[in-house]
Amino acid sequence: MQRRILGLSPYLIWPLALGLTACGSRLDTTAVEGAIKTDIERQGRRLSLKAVLCPGDVKRQAEASFRCVGEVDPEGTFTINVTQQDSQGNVTWDVPNSKALLNLPKVEDSIQQGLSQAYGKRAQLDCGSATYRVNQPGDRFECQVVGGVTTDTSTITAVLVSIDPDGNLSWQEMKTAGGSLQAIASPGRSSAPSTAAPPANSPAAAATTTTPPAVTGPTGRSITRPYVPGDSD
């Protein structure tokens, strides 16, 4: 069945902390830019950035946030949310999904939740060892369902993620039935990657109070399994 990528859960973020030398009362944003660029390229799949640009006049202040912009080579820009952890220059950052860049752990989380809601079982997704991937229209990639999800008639072993010409994502289940692999698809409308948080009183927001157990996929990278009410295994 083909499904669209919906709003991504706000509790799944993959920030990276780094101690930075601050200059006086101002944050050394040049160091922040270099560190973020290096880290995204290191964790990316064949990914090269032209630059990461941050505001030049940021006061050191614990819990204060600001935004930087990343430029993909050859084209495309994306937002980077930076938060100061203290007043000593330590920061974390998070890269939301966008029309230019995909945060694969967030894509995994969205699909995991979709499978869990559809079948009432935990689903563990592994879209590869990279954390970031260029959002390339017309591209397709496969994510493995670790251990599979067994239904009444088949086992879901993978999902195929497709990117339409506008950069919107959709996915369809790959099932084994009668010993063969089948793509189970139905007409569906894609939607753009979204990072908007749900209303505070929505079920998605309530789910953030539960810490999902961490597991490790075949690539060795830590992935997160969504919580399913009543599922205690």
Q: Can you count the beta strands?
A: 15
Estimate nothing, just give the exact number of structural domains: 2
> End-to-end distance, in Å?
27 Å
Low-confidence stretches: 6-18, 184-192, 194-233
Class computed from helices, strands and strand pairing: alpha+beta
Radius of gyration: 19 Å
How many H/I helices? Answer: 3
Largest sheet: 6 strands, antiparallel
Helix content: 10-25%
Specify the overall morphology. Answer: elongated
Order of helices and strands: EEHEEEEEHEEEEEEHEE
The average pLDDT score comes to 75
Strand content: 25-35%
Question: Summed up, what is this model?
Answer:
This protein has helices at residues 29-43, 104-119, 203-206; strands at 2-4, 18-19, 49-53, 65-72, 77-84, 90-94, 101-103, 125-126, 132-134, 140-150, 155-163, 169-177, 180-184, 214-216, 222-224.
How would you characterize the overall build of this protein?
- This protein has 233 residues and is an alpha+beta fold.
- The chain has two domains: 2-11 and 101-224, no CATH class; 18-94, no CATH class.
- 15% of the residues lie in helices and 34% in strands.
- It is built from three helices and 15 strands.
- Strands 1, 8, 10, 11, 12 and 13 form a six-stranded antiparallel beta sheet that branches. A five-stranded antiparallel beta sheet has the order 2-6-5-4-3, covered by helices on one side.
- A hairpin with a 4-residue loop joins strand 10 (140-150) and strand 11 (155-163).
- It is elongated, with a radius of gyration of 19 Å.
- The two termini are 27 Å apart.
